[in-house]
Every structure is written in C-alpha cells, then in structure tokens.
Specification:
This protein has 9 helices and 15 strands. Helix content is 31%, strand content 30%. The protein has an 8-stranded mixed β-sheet with strand order 12-11-10-13-14-8-9-15, with helices on one face.
Length: 334
C-alpha cells in the first residue's frame, strides 16, 4: 500500500491509500493484464491510530481482460492480504478481534475492544469466533511437478483458511520433500514466501505467513506456481478448484490420491533426476552401483502413503487446537 493522505479528525483517522501493483490476473482465463478500466474507493475499518479508530480508504483498480475469448470483460483487483472478499474491515483488525474473543470471551473481550479503540459487541465477537472455528471451506488442490513424464502429481483437500506458509508445509508433506531448501509461490507477477530483504527485481516478496489462500481466491478456481529449491528448480503447478463447504467434524488437509514417487532431494533437478533413473534402471550403466546405494529402497512407482497421511493429520490437529479448546470450554460451562 502507498499512503497518499492522512486526515486526523476529532473522533477518527482516515487514511487514503493506493496499491503499488498495477497489474492483475483475470480470475476466469488466468491471463495477466495491465490495462486499467477505472478506480473505485473501498472503506475498511483498520487498527486504531493514536487512540482513535482508523479507516482505510483504498483506491482499488478495475482492469480490462485483454483475452478476446474470455467472457469476463472487466474485473476488480483482489485486496490480497488486506481484507477478504466483501469484507468491511482489514484482515489484521479481524484477526485482533478473533484473538481477543478467543482469549477473553464475549463480554470481557468487548470491554477490551473499547479500551483499544476498536469497539465491537460481545455477540459479534462470539459469532466471529464460532464462524472461524466451526466453518471450514475447502477446495480440492491438484499439485503437479512440472516437466515430469509420466507426470508426478498429488490431489489433496485443503481448507481455504490456510496461510501460504502452512500450504507450503502441506505441499512438502504431500509430495514427499524434506523442506531443506528455500521456496516461494508466484501468482501473476507477485511472489509470496519467507520475509526477505533482497528482491531481485519485480514486486517485493509478500510474507506467506500473513497471506491466506482465501484472500487469493477471487473465484472458485486458483492457479499458482510453487517453486522449491532454487538450485534444482523444482517447479510445481498448484491448482485449486471445487471450493465448497467441508464436512462437520472432519479434519483438513486430507490426502486423496497421487501417482509416482517424488524425486530425491539434491539430485540435480529434472535433468539430474532422469539421469539418475536411467542409471538406476540399467545394471550396465557406470553409475548404477553408486545410484543404487544412494537410493536404497526408493521406488519411483510407489508412494509411501502412511507417513504422508500421518503428517497431514498432524497439520490438521494443529489447526483444530482452537476448535478442541472451544468445545471443551462449552462442555464445561454447560
């Protein structure tokens, strides 16, 4: 965000901001565009400033889709990491209210929000807490390791409330990587990953721990690139669709299916991987003994699903810790 003007009134602060980004990806055809149609203003309640409630007035661009066959002629840039679709407050203010409700409850939490100059009623605090804990919107994610033949892929149900940092963990577990190296997501020309002071051109990398999957979902379909190990350059196509309500009492992420084992770490990328397979399959190859000793009992045609499912269950249980604690509190008070 770029702050353009700050207006300090007697009882509130208005902050007019714009977006640095001047390009977007069409939610239907997934084609990037820089052609702006118009701007509109969106008002969002934000964290208080100097003891006064603050309102962000965001100038949001609307873009033309430049693909002739795309049915969507114009679309609005999503406010990724700033607010959710149709939201009236920023994500960080919503998170603050959630943590207050989770820690103090309704009445005490409402009194605290008054002291913090971001007042909200006790009933609304409890409703927002319950909506986060009880409702799970999920989508079916397809993860493909690009440039592999036959294609190495996995399918998993993931909640849209995941941060991209946790989604990275899901991909690592699901594919079979060991999380030894750096990584990042790319959507259009925007990158998401670990905080980094060094940006090699383009837009600055956004913190994946502060961006949720639902913030990027402008429709029921989203496609991104996930790259792991910048040396070997393992690029994955991440596609999520079929966004729907999850089943009550069921934990997510949840493994569905997949085919072929993930390449071993540090094998030299796609060229090194296929050279390794060639050496492993040919007993007469000069590197056969060395590669066989390195791979041990690894089989390219098999997926070890038991540790995969166990690791995903651990991620799901960590996410459900708040739900479990709330259920215990409700049972003890009833």
């Amino acid at each position: 965000l770029v702050v353009r003007r700050v207006v300090a009134l007697d009882n509130r602060v208005e902050i007019e901001v714009g977006l640095r980004k001047r390009s977007a990806v069409c939610p239907d055809c997934q084609c990037p565009t820089q052609r702006i149609h118009s701007f509109y203003q969106r008002k969002l309640a934000d964290l208080p400033w100097q003891g006064r409630p603050a309102t962000l007035i965001v100038s949001v661009p609307r873009f033309f889709c430049q693909t002739m066959l795309c049915p969507r002629r114009t679309f609005v840039m999503p406010l990724e990491g700033i607010t959710v679709r149709h939201g009236r407050q920023t994500t960080r203010l919503a998170d603050l209210h959630y943590y207050i409700a989770h820690t103090l409850g309704g009445s005490a939490g409402a009194r605290m929000t008054v002291r913090l100059c971001c007042p909200i009623s006790a009933d609304t605090l409890v409703r927002r807490l319950l909506s986060r804990v009880q409702n799970t919107t999920k989508g079916t994610a397809l993860i493909e390791l690009t440039d592999t033949a036959p294609l190495i892929w996995r399918e998993v149900d993931v909640p849209t409330s995941l941060t991209l940092r946790t989604l990275h963990e899901v991909i690592q577990v699901t594919m079979g990587w060991l999380d030894y190296h750096l990584w990042e997501f790319t959507l259009g020309d925007q990158r998401y990953g670990l905080p980094d002071n060094e940006d090699w051109g383009g837009l600055p990398r956004r913190n994946a721990a502060k961006t949720r999957l639902r913030d990027l979902l402008t429709t029921s379909r989203l496609e991104m690139v996930y790259e792991y190990d910048f040396g070997d350059g393992w690029r994955h196509r991440f596609l999520i669709n079929n966004v729907r309500q999850g089943k009550a009492g069921e934990g997510y992420p949840k493994y569905i299916a997949g085919q072929y084992a993930c390449p071993p770490e540090d094998c030299g990328g796609i060229p090194g991987f296929y050279h390794m397979l060639e050496s492993w399959a040919d007993p007469d190859h000069p590197d056969h003994d060395e590669v066989s000793a390195y791979l041990e009992d690894w089989n390219p045609n098999e997926i070890n699903e038991l540790p995969l499912r166990n690791a995903l269950n651990r991620i799901a249980n960590k996410r459900n810790a708040v739900r479990t604690r709330l259920n215990k509190t409700m049972k003890s008070s009833s």
